[in-house]
Amino acid sequence: MDQEMKITDSIDDRGLLESSMRLKPHEAQSYRKKALWVSWVSIMITIVLAIAAFTVSIMRHSASAFGFAFDATLDVLSSVIVLWRYSNAAAVHSAHREYIACVILGVIFILSSLCILGKAIHDLATKLLPEVDDFLFSVSIVSGLLCIALAVIKFMLGRVLTSRALITDGFNSLVGGVMGFSILISAEVFKHEPQVWYLDGTAGVLIGLIILAYGVKLLLDMVPRVRQTRNYERFE
Fold first, then answer.
1. What is the Cα–Cα distance from 132 to 114, expressed in whole angstroms?
2. Is the pTM of the predicted complex or chain greater than 0.70?
């Protein structure tokens, strides 16, 4: 991933992503527009999923549903950051703009992970039992399938544009898909094995830690790069 998003060594190309070396201008703009469209679609879908998941979390006392709802909200924010990243047509290959977007995403990831961890740990400590029904299953399946589909598209565009921001947005959608299915799995296990009530909360803790680790790594990788590239902005 780091190799794909490297800054070229030549003086003329300094401050540009590797995609500037292999994409023709009209190709880059075409993929930029696709990234914008995917981000808008992702925002609309994840807003609906977040509302549904928050409803499930409150009605069914599900820690993983709350975690998914928070991750869906995070997905909305990360897609908004991607919209900002590609809003300027002239900045499609700008490394500095790319790294700023990644730093913002890293901060959002860390804050969201703390909220998810806090809720999951609280539910484990109070032994909050999830309630299982068809509504919970429906939300889990639809959420999982939609989020994974969005993640695949974002990963593909991110590789073409060598965009860490798009790949990060795709990672967040992938986590959302996994969380959607984790709700289904934990609910099904609890239905047949009530003594394994802690599976739901444990899934919430695990997902929170994954998001936290990714956010910290993103900041460690990107903050130095923001400083290195701030003197090479060209699109302004």
1. 26
2. yes
